[in-house]
Structures are given as structure tokens and as C-alpha cells.
Design brief:
CATH architecture: Orthogonal Bundle
CATH class: Mainly Alpha
Shape: globular
Structural class: mainly alpha
Distance between the termini: 11 Å
Number of domains: 1
Order of helices and strands: HHEEHHHEEHH
Number of helices: 7
Strand order of the largest sheet: 1-2
CATH topology: yeast vps74-n-term truncation variant fold
Length: 160
């Protein structure tokens, strides 16, 4: 099953694999928030208005989440969620996005296709997923404010 962060990274690109025109600082904050949500979903952290607390340091089986959980746990200073979003978005967002994309390629969710024209670079897109289904997913995700990738693409979230 795809994590919240992986679903967000998929929604940040159009059906041709081209990143949507969203400011990088907004993407960085969204990725930082998604990582914290994944850790909270896995019962590794808990938050309130004053502090973000690590409850469980055991590995999550996701290298990105494990690395960031260790970073949060190692910090001596107590920070709230807003501070952690600022820290992670400033220090970790580009690496998180690259690691998530590489993981999606390893899982077979994305494929890397090189362009015939060298100035266009390579593009990432969901492998074998119809463009209309990706558009429908993106539209319903923004309308309902929930992510629908596992329900529209049930085979993408399953493990072999």
C-alpha cells in the first residue's frame, strides 16, 4: 500500500510526469507535513499544540520515514509540529522527494522514460495507468481533500 507521502508525490506531477506548476516552498511544506502524517499514522509520533513527541523508535520499513524519525528522535530540543514542518521542509524536502520517486520506480508504480530529444530530459509517469484515470483521481482528490489512488488503482498499493 502506498504511503501518504508517496500518494502526494504522485499528485504533484501531471499524467506525463511533468511537475505541476507549484512553488517549491509549498511543495516542501506539503512533503514535510506528509512525512509527519505517515509517522503519526504508524503511531511513531504524537502531536499537540506545544510539542511533537516520539512514541516509538522502531523502524517503519520505509527508509525515508526511518531516517526522518531518527532525526526527530535525536533532537534534544522539544519542537512543535509547525517547527518540525519548517525544519524538514528546509533541510529534507528535496531529498525526500527524490527518495520517494526512486522508491516508486523500484515498486513499479512509476517508470522512467527517456525523451528522444536530449533537451527535454527524462519524464516519470505512472506505468500502465491510463491518463484519464490519473486526471479523475487528481480531480476527486482535490474536490474531496482525500487521496484516492489506492481505490482507483487497487493494484498499485498491493505488495507482491
Amino acid at each position: 500500500m502506498l504511503s501518504f507521502t508517496e500518494e502526494l508525490v504522485l499528485l504533484l506531477n501531471d499524467e506525463d510526469g511533468v511537475p505541476l506548476p507549484i512553488r517549491q516552498d509549498v511543495v516542501a511544506c506539503a512533503l514535510a507535513g506528509a512525512v509527519l502524517m505517515d509517522l503519526a499514522f504508524d503511531y511513531r509520533i504524537d502531536t499537540d499544540f506545544e510539542a511533537l513527541v516520539v512514541h516509538d523508535r522502531t523502524p517503519t520499513s520505509n527508509a525515508v520515514l526511518d531516517r526522518l524519525l531518527a532525526k526527530i528522535a535525536a533532537r534534544a530540543e522539544v519542537c512543535d509540529t509547525k517547527a518540525w514542518i519548517g525544519i524538514l521542509s528546509a533541510e529534507e524536502a528535496p531529498a525526500v522527494q527524490d527518495e520517494i520517486l526512486a522508491g516508486l520506480v523500484e515498486q513499479g508504480v512509476l517508470t522512467i522514460r527517456s525523451s528522444k530529444f536530449p533537451w527535454m530530459g527524462s519524464r516519470r509517469r505512472p506505468g500502465g495507468v491510463p491518463a484519464a484515470a490519473v486526471r479523475r483521481c487528481r480531480r476527486s482528490a482535490f474536490v474531496s481533500r482525500t487521496c484516492c489512488i489506492p481505490t482507483i488503482f487497487p493494484t498499485l498499493g498491493t505488495s507482491p
